[in-house]
Design brief:
Blueprint: H1 2-20, H2 27-52, H3 59-74
Length: about 80
């Protein structure tokens, strides 16, 4: 019983640290962590599809690539992009 509570507390602390990381300062590291988190979500979806279900499908990679290219083409070139984009 204590092990589950300790794990829950560690998960909450880790989530709070990740949520407060953008307040730490350096833009480079904030952008780097954001990219790492996006790629981690992509890797988890691939693990779910191939590891647990046994489906060898890269169809979700097409949506990931399409979103990246459309954001790059629709975003402003020399200024910060809007959060809504």
């Amino acid at each position: 019983m204590k092990n589950n509570r300790t794990t829950d507390i560690l998960l909450v602390v880790a989530a709070l640290l990740i949520a407060l990381f953008p307040l730490s300062g350096a833009t480079f590291y904030v952008q780097l962590v954001a990219k790492v988190m996006i790629l981690a979500i992509f890797a988890m979806s691939l693990d779910l599809l191939i590891g647990y279900t046994g489906l060898v499908s890269f169809g979700h990679a097409a949506f990931y690539g399409l979103a990246g290219y459309s954001l790059a083409l629709l975003g402003p070139k020399y200024e910060a992009a809007s959060v809504w984009w």
